[in-house]
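Hi R.,

Here's the chain you asked about this morning:
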Amino acid sequence: MHKEIGLISTFLFLLAACGTATPQALPTATSIASTIAPINTLSPTPIPSITPTIYTPPPTPTPVPTNAANPDFVRDNTPVPQPVEIISPDNVDKIVELARWGNGFIYTLRLSKDGSRVAVATSQGVFFYETGNYTLSGVTWFDLDDGEYAFSPSTKQLARGGGGEVTIYDSETGEVLQTIPAFEHEFIALAYSPNGALLFTSGGDINQPDATKVWDTSNWALLEFFPLNARAITFSSDGSTAAAVGLNNEITAWKVGRYENSIQFKLPDLFGEYAEFSSVGLSSDGEVVVAGTGNYMGLYGWDFSSGELIFGIDVDAVFFSIGGGKLTKPMEFSEGPGPFTVPAVAFISEEEVAITTGLGKLLVWNIKTEKLVQDVSVGKPGLAYLTGAEHLLAWGESAFEVIQVSDLRIVHWVGDFSHSPVVYKNYFSEDPYTRMNFSPGGHLLLYGSDIYDLNAGKMILTSPMEMLLRFAEDGNSVIAYSRSDRAITYTSLSDGKTIQVIPITEPPGEEFWTVDSIDNIILSPQEDLMATFDERVRIWDLGSGAFIEPIDEYAEFLKFSPRGKYLAISSGVGRTAIYATENWEPVLQYDNFVYGFAFSKDEELLAIGNRKEIFVWEIDSQEIVFQTQGNIDWGLDTLAFSPDARLLASVSWSGITLWDVQTAAPFLQLHGHTNTVNNIAFSPDGRYLVSGSQDGTVRLWGIKRE
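And the predicted structure, written out as tokens:
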């Protein structure tokens, strides 16, 4: 048996974690012109214009009903309350959050000044860990919206910047201590001084005279301001010096309280117009300024007093020095976006600087000997360090690693915070794709690489090296694709053993073909067909694994209808076509932007949405039966019909919307997630609505028992 296939057989039973939503007023439905047309491949006909008949709201729309908050939703390792009612237009106003899994997306963390604990701020609150064995010592549960965050040195306060203001929380109680209206525009960065007496905030327009403000944390009085637009601010450990990465792609450093004497550092001209600074650090006395770059992985150091460049390093340990103002050895940077960056730097001694790279490396350089001391794989872009401490923390969106400074060994791993698969947004992938589906019996939920047992409130993690696709039709196994073995595998849910392996035949003339991403593969409900896409859409007979059909369509999304009668193919940016699987002929097309689509269970209706509008068609008659102003986010599961097709759920950055399919009227909008909602699905019996979000949580909604 192949090694990678065997990994799917290992199931780890982990704890899962589980808020309250507030419905708000929604945009009203409006009439929007749209066109569809049947396709005749032999003799295409002009696309006829269709005028839909849709719901028209009254001049003063009735406020959308609101539902009461549910403080009794369950979290980790707790059976989910079983709703007795199916979600329908008759009771939709009674929907509440029943369960929440996941401790959230990590915003920031900090070692306390006395070295006794680590505080971690997530979208779900603040978690405290004792530094001896890094066990959880306390949790303060409260929702934190997306924004910029910083802990005070004691970790007793948490500052959030966002929406033009700064909010100061008591991190041990969740109480709001102070709200400061700081900026009229975008908030960028904030940082406490090492003694906690000052809070620096930066935001606003470019060249705004008060872009950076300094606050007295004893009374929150504004002490000074200056025209620096910074996306990151740091301090020397003695508090004498501050440095910032500016939006103008310069490093600015200054003695605290004397910004008028600040100095600026720029990248040498030879590194091209695409290089930019991504991080900054200071030696303990503030006399050496270091900066990491993005686009090209590099590390630079300057003498604060003279302003001279004293070293430059790339990730391949090619070092150059400046002599007589001339470059003696050019750097050999690797060009590219995303991974080719240095997101964090920190001095761990007077001579050693630690950096993280976008390729998942932690590197330590001795800036005196000009040598690489060590490199380890950490996979986490953030760094946290307290001068003189034994441990360095590398952290990412859902976990952090404790690294012993003396030998760079990873001695603790703390997580997984997020039970919702969160895709790190970089230049390569700006939109998350994650599979979500229920088992036929409705008691298990697959989301990304995770499987949840709703009855027990537990999560099963399968091998992250496999692409989990869906539950098998019999409900007893889970189906995955093995990239290295180029095979479909069936794995038993009862004992984790591999039941069946189906090798996939490569397309003619493509010996090295394989599926590179879970985004690019989908199975029919009856498990008889497999569809993939790269440059074109391809179809396989899943019974034999044989290649049977190419379709000359560019695709960003593929979706089979619930009974396998149709395959929807969307380019996302200009064309969506519906093909009949009996003859692979197109039966319907829509020529416009598409961000997501969904079929009704009976295959009679097709919903399509984008940033501006949502449509529902009857496939056979090709008539629009629903058209409304609304928006959805990009993704495979951003629209979902209820099993009886009376409700349509849509998701976007603003939350979850439930629509009446008969009238196109919005019933309810659920706000509970603190970041973009990526996926939504109804359970097969219609009693549950489940959503997954970039806030690091999966939430289960339903009608609460009286």
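Helices lie at 3-7.

Let me know if you need anything else.
M.
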